[in-house]
Amino acid sequence: THTHTHRVVVLCPCSAAMPPTPASAATLAALQEFSDAAEGVKLATPLNVVICGGGNAAHVLSGVLGHNPNLSVSLYSSLPHEVEAFKASQGDGIAISKESGDFVGKLAAVTSDPQDVIPNAKVIIISVPAFAHEAVVGCIAPYVSDGAVLGVLPARSFFDLALKDKLGDKVPRILAYGLQTLPWACRINEYGKSASILGVKAEVDMCVSPDADGTACPVVAQALGKMFGLKLKPVKGGFITVTLANVGQLIHPG
Q: At 36, is the pLDDT very low, low, confident or very high (cuts 50, 70, 90)?
């Protein structure tokens, strides 16, 4: 009987995609403002946040973040029918149903042109299926400002490589973050008008890059967690961790 030992080597380009450098001064300033907004500190002007997407999570994000008076929330989608539906109810806002209570959040702008909202965005949240991550980043890339806090939920499938490909030398001048899963189980009730939060996850892993000294991720985790209403857990290893520890590839009930 012969026993053969096979060694599997995983070649990961992630370290080249996101070098271990500290967050920039502009990003740290945006992070502080973001953190203050989450903690309820009254800001001189609302923080500009842009949601990219039009699905279940984008509806909930619109309602949850649009309900925060410290935030000026806009929505970008490249699909005209999605934009038309959100615009039709923009005055009334997005109604969110939740076990702990219902509320409404309003959008400051809805557009199919990223140039309208991305340049002034301090925080950008991409919430689309993984196959569309690269396309969305490509659409917004020319307009992303230095210091922006740009991320995705969920952040599966080497999101950092899509950033490197589309943002190029802008990558070190922004802060990228990613959640391993969506924070909620949620469903649209009426498109562009309402959605339900069926459940909130107790804890969701997340990563941030660049974050060489480990100070940025806890700040982003605390601020986003406060706004989303759950605990976000910083993980080591950056985007490679949330990519390879993809729970959705093991169990993903519809």
A: confident
Query: At residue 57, what is the residue type?
Result: A
pTM for this structure?
A: 0.87
Closest CA to 187 of 52, 54, 56: 56
Q: What is the DSSP string of 48-95?
A: EEEEE--SHHHHHHHHHHHT-TTEEEEEE-S-HHHHHHHHHTTTT-EE
pLDDT reading at 4 higher than 80: no
DSSP 199: E
* % the chain with pLDDT above 70: 88
Residue with tokens 């969110």: 96
Output the 3-class SS for 102-139. CEEECCCEEECCHHHCCCCCCEEEECCCHHHHHHHHHH
Q: Quote the CA–CA distance of 206 and 103 in Å, as a whole number.
A: 27
| Whole-number Å distance between alpha carbons of 194 and 66 | 13
Q: Could you count the other beta carbons within 10 Å of the beta carbon of residue 94?
A: 30
Give residue for tokens 């480990």: 214
Per residue in 116-174, pLDDT (tens digit) is 999 999 999 999 998 999 999 999 999 999 999 999 998 877 899 999 999 999 998 99
Buried b / exposed e along 121-140 (16+ C-beta atoms within 10 A): bbbbbbbbebeebbebbebb
Structure tokens given for 123:
């925080």
